[in-house]
Amino acid sequence: MHDGFESRESWPFECLRCLYVWEEDYVVRHLTDGHGNEVDIWLTSGVPVQPPWSGASCPACGAYHLTSFPTGYLARHPELTAAPDPVPLAKVPVVPVNEIDLPTAIRTPLPRRLLIAVGLPVVAFVGYELYQYVLGPAVPHH
């Protein structure tokens, strides 16, 4: 790459899911090789990134359904930038599965559930059979 220059660009975005508005700053390196081929390299904080129109996500909710505004739009409309910064996600400590103690009082043991699930229909069936064969003939039919 022989010829090149850098430019700074600010891209204002709005999330179409949560309506959060923010602006991202980029450095764009415009490079041209000896054959006339042009390449743009987008940088954020010195790290190469994808261009803003491909793969940007909302810092508030993580959605990828965004819209962008023309450069300088937010400077002319300060009422849009009054939204609060997104709350960072809570950091949950990683605990190995074998160290997790499950309270036993919350869940009923499986054998008791099984006895109830199987026992109630059996009791109902036996009660019906007893009624049919023992009490049924003793009661006269009209």
Could you give a short description of this structure?
By secondary structure, this protein is α+β, with helices and mostly antiparallel strands. The protein has helices spanning 73-76, 110-138, and strands spanning 3-15, 21-32, 38-44, 47-49, 66-68. The longest helix has 29 residues, at 110-138.
Plain-language structure description:
- It is a single chain.
- With 142 residues, the chain is α+β, with helices and mostly antiparallel strands.
- The protein contains 2 helices and 5 strands, in the order βββββαα.
- The chain has helices spanning 73-76, 110-138; strands at 3-15, 21-32, 38-44, 47-49, 66-68.
- Strands 4-3-2-1-5 form a 5-stranded antiparallel β-sheet, with no helix packed on it.
- The chain is elongated, with a radius of gyration of 35 Å.
Mean pLDDT: 80
Query: In percent, how much strand structure appears in the residues?
Result: 25-35%
Q: Radius of gyration from the CA trace?
A: 35 Å
Main sheet summary? 5 strands, antiparallel
Read across the widest sheet, the strand sequence of neighbours is 4-3-2-1-5
Which residues sit in consecutive blocks of at least 5 with pLDDT less than 50? none
Distance between the termini: 107 Å
Describe this protein with a few key phrases.
alpha+beta, single chain, 142 residues, 23% helix
